[in-house]
Design goal:
By secondary structure, the protein is of the alpha+beta class. The chain has six helices and 21 strands.
Length: 438
């Protein structure tokens, strides 16, 4: 019994000695006061993000130029149509009556022309007959005058011949005026023919407009009328259908702020997604940067047109696209977190390239690396591209694998504070809450 007790006591003493020795010789781990990230090499893609609306490359509004009730609709939503295909019919009864009326008017005008030409021919024949009689009357007058000289006829006969000659001269003038009048009447009736032909052409055109045909190959994406509805065309043609051309390709119009428009050029690669297929990434290219600026609440934007393929026609006109325009790309470059450029060690002693009490640096951008004994070491860099979270940089030294400081550790301080604070005392607001309150 005593031996067992002695054995247990010795065993306990040895265990205590081993534990104390282990605690004595154990190297205490020094916790770093910084939050760090390892510098790596990789790909940096700089993007401008925006939203836009999916649109057909060409959108055609098919309207009506005549009034009347819709007699028949031959297509509906999503129907594919070909150029020249009939898609609607307006009741043609009224316009057919106009055509018949103008055809009759034209026939009457042509008959009037024939009558006027006949009158003109008669007037010209009358002139020729009167001129022949005038020639004969002048000869009779000459003969009577010769006979009178020889006193073979009375003076009254000479006077009668002279009177006949003068009457025929006057009749020639009257007949010539009748010819001019007949010619004017003929020209007027010929003009009436041209007017009647123009009126008939207009009536036939309006009759043709009652048959509405597709001007392009495409897809019906909008129908604005129903059968039996009366359409009225006034200053602007009333739209009946909206036809989108080939939807195998689409375009997106995005409004880019003026702060980013300088980096957008034609040909840049664009990736985008839509809510209907949130796991599918579509690709396209910038085809146009328009100068038509728009200002909304003092924010100036410029429209940018992107064209892309539409596989299986899954993208519908009107969908909202979330765009990322690739404005820059560089591979195998040093990458550091953007937070590293905003970090400044606390209690930093003033130096030559810093203002006293401030953080303004005259030596250009720099980051802080973990140096010996966890001391921060400042390193100047040159910024290249940024994707918003990571920045591509260049430096005079090879920084690959070095630890860059992105912030200070706060966990140990908060735990020490927690141990020293009375749990029953009211809690003070955290630093972030106080900062937000300010």
């Amino acid at each position: 019994m005593k031996k067992g007790i002695i054995f247990l006591v010795v065993l306990g003493v040895l265990g205590l000695a081993i534990w104390q020795g282990t605690k004595y010789f154990k190297t205490e781990k020094v916790e770093s006061p910084w939050r760090t990230r390892k510098i790596e090499r990789g790909l940096i893609v700089q993007e401008v993000r925006a939203t836009g609306t999916v649109q057909p490359i060409k959108n055609i509004l098919v309207g009506t130029q005549v009034n009347g009730p819709i007699k028949k609709l031959y297509v509906n939503f999503n129907d594919e149509v070909k150029v020249g295909q009939q898609i609607a019919q307006i009741d043609p009864a009224v316009y057919q009556a106009y055509v018949s009326k103008d055809e009759a008017t034209l026939a009457s005008a042509k008959a009037n022309v024939l009558s006027s030409k006949a009158n003109l021919a008669q007037a010209r024949a009358t002139v020729e007959l009167t001129q022949a009689k005038l020639v004969l009357a002048e000869k009779d007058l000459v003969r009577m005058e010769e006979l009178r000289k020889n006193e073979m006829v009375a003076q009254s006969e000479v006077d009668t011949a002279l009177s006949n000659r003068d009457a025929l001269l006057a009749q020639v003038k009257v007949n010539a005026a009748a010819v001019v009048q007949a010619e004017a009447a003929t020209q007027q009736t010929e003009a009436m023919i041209q007017q009647s032909e123009a009126s008939l052409q207009l009536s036939r055109a309006n009759l043709g407009y009652t048959t509405i045909k597709s001007p392009v190959d495409g897809v019906i994406i909008q129908r604005n009328v129903d059968e039996g509805q009366t359409v009225v065309s006034s200053m602007n043609a009333q739209t009946i259908f909206t036809i989108a051309t080939d939807l195998n390709r689409i375009q997106i119009q995005a409004d880019i702020p003026e702060s980013d428009i300088g980096g957008i050029v034609m040909g840049q690669r664009v990736t985008f997604s839509v809510d209907a297929y949130n796991r599918v990434v579509f690709t396209g290219n910038v085809v146009q940067v328009r100068m038509a600026a728009t200002s909304v609440q003092n924010v100036v934007t410029f429209p940018v047109i992107i064209q892309a393929d539409n596989p299986n026609k899954r993208l519908f006109p009107g969908m909202t696209a979330n765009l990322a325009v690739e404005t820059g790309r560089v591979e195998d470059i040093l990458k550091i977190p953007a937070a590293a450029l905003r970090f400044t060690p606390p209690d930093l002693p003033p130096c030559a390239d810093e203002e006293k009490g401030g953080i303004k640096k005259t030596g250009g951008p720099a980051v802080w690396l973990v140096g010996p004994n966890n001391k921060p070491e400042r390193m100047k860099i040159k910024q290249k591209l940024s994707d918003g979270t990571m920045i591509g940089v260049e430096a005079e030294q090879d920084l690959l694998g070095r630890e860059v400081i992105v912030g200070s550790q706060t966990a140990s301080a908060s735990s020490a504070e927690k141990d020293s604070v009375n749990p029953f005392a009211p809690k003070m607001p955290s630093h972030s809450v106080r900062h937000a309150a300010r």
